[in-house]
Structure formats: structure tokens, C-alpha cells
Amino acid sequence: MKKLIIMALLLVCCASAALAKEEIIPPSYDVPDYVTYLLEIAVEELGNGEDRYGVTKYGEWSGDPKAQWCAEFACWCVDQVDKRYGTDLLKKVFPLYSSSNTGRAFFIKQGRYVARNGHMSEIEGGGYQWYKDEDHYIKANSYIPQPGDWAFFTFTSGVDTDHVAIVEYCTVDPNGKITVHVIEGNNPSKVARNTYALADKCILGYGTVHDVVDWTLRAGDQGEKVRYIQLRLAYLGFLEETDATGSFDRTTIKAIDAFQTQCMPNKRTNGMADISTQNALNALCREEMKNDASGYQVVDD
């Protein structure tokens, strides 16, 4: 499937890339079929947009005919994938929303968000990110967005999202400059392709198809990454399985403290699942599971 998507992108975009002497960057991860469908539907909509009254079918579909409709377009495309192919993506893999930060918050709660500069703002949850199982933080602009990722933008130098677009592919020129190619609604009154430099400061981050990074978790955090940590703590006996609620509560803090005390003797306890704690927890779980005859599964698919 990866080869198919690359070939499709080449067929669509090779002419313009050749003129710019750019090369398409092959995806680093497998491209799911539903992403192929999503991009196909988005391409079908190129050129469609507002009528003379500012009404779009994407806004009508969402309940606000004259909405500023970048999010509505992206969500509508997902809905079309579900209807045409019998998938169940909307509100599970991709968000359904129209307000400013709701889409980004959805991906963060799902555990699939990469901040462009490698550091999440306070509104995003705070803290530096790292690629899974690595022992150092990611550098700014190091993540190459993948087909189907959603790019979130600010045009006011703030932390609130002003715009969203679907990533189609990325290219690199002979000087190593990477460009993100997207399909977006509301540009400014129709669906269009657009490009952004990977290092463009208007990019806040990406809601990702794949779970590629982790970040520090602390009291008050919620979502799949919290549940992932709790299930591992439960597997090692520091929590009860019923405590794996996805909410970083006092019980989880105490379990983290106990794990750090027993399994990380050189670390000062802090009640947070930081980079060293998560890596130690994952490593110990892998080691224990090798010798676990029950075949216990820590996380359901």
C-alpha cells in the first residue's frame, strides 16, 4: 500500500515537483487504506467552495452554512470515507468539530499529536516530546508529516488554532528544504492545494495517523497515553487494572512514585511519567512479558 500511495502522489504531482527540482519524500510509516481514500476524496473536491453568498456544502453538512469551513471540509471528507467504504473513522480516528482548538485537543487525547517545535504549549498539555522509546527530546522541525496527518496552524502568533489542513505529502529540494503539501478548505473561498515550509512558524503541530511520540504526563492529564501508562503499572503490580481510567489521578501519582522508588533507585521521585520513567516502565514490561507464560496483553488493539 505504501508503494501505491507513493505512485499515486507521483502521478498527480511529479510535473510541478520536477519544475521545482523537488523530490517526494516517501512515507516513513505504512499508509492505511483509509488515508488513501481520504486523500482521494479531498482531491475530488479541489475547486469546490463558497457560492456567492458564502455558503458551502461543508458548512451546511456541519450545521452552519456560512462557517469558516477549513475544519468542516476535513471532517466532511472523513464522513465521506465512512459512507463510501463502511469505515468508522469520524470521532474515533479523526475529530468531528468546528471550534478553534477542539480538533487538536482530540488528537492530543488520542495520543497522536506532534508539536512542530517539539515542545507542547501549556494549552496543549505542556512539556517536551520524544520519539517513542528514545532517550532524548525531538528537535524542532524534525518530524516529517505523513499522508493523512492534519496540520494545525496559527496566523496570529498565538497558541490557538486558526486553520487546519490535510497533509498530502512532503518534498525536499536539492538544498534540503522540506515543503509540506496540503489540501485545505477555505483557501480563501475554495478547496485548494497549498504548501508550507516545514519550519514555518505558523504551523503549531500535527494530528498524526500514527502514534509516533510520547510526552511527559502529570496530574490532571487525560487520554490514551495516560491509560497506556496505567496499564503498564497495573501489569507490574503498582496499580489495579480497574484504575486504568485514562485520568492521571492521585492513585496514579502514588503508583508512579512507588515505581520510581523500587525500579529507578537513582531517580528522585516526582510523581510524573517523564521520559526516563516511561522508558524504564516500557523496558521492564517488555522484559517481564518475555517470561510471562499467560501471554498477558497490556493494551488492547
Set down the secondary structure blueprint.
Blueprint: H1 2-19, E1 23-24, H2 33-44, H3 57-62, H4 70-85, H5 102-110, E2 113-115, E3 119-120, E4 127-131, E5 150-153, E6 163-172, E7 178-184, E8 192-197, E9 203-207, E10 213-215, H6 224-235, H7 250-263, H8 275-290
Antiparallel strand pairs: 1-6, 2-9, 3-4, 4-10, 5-6, 5-9, 6-7, 7-8
Given helix and strand content, the structural type is alpha+beta
The fraction of residues in strands falls at: 15-25%
Task: List the uncertain runs.
Answer: none
Q: Got a strand count?
A: 10
In round numbers, the mean pLDDT is 92
Radius of gyration, Cα only, in angstroms? 21 Å
Q: What is the N-to-C succession of helices and strands? A: HEHHHHEEEEEEEEEHHH
* Global outline: elongated
- Count the helices. How many? 8
* N/C terminus separation: 21 Å
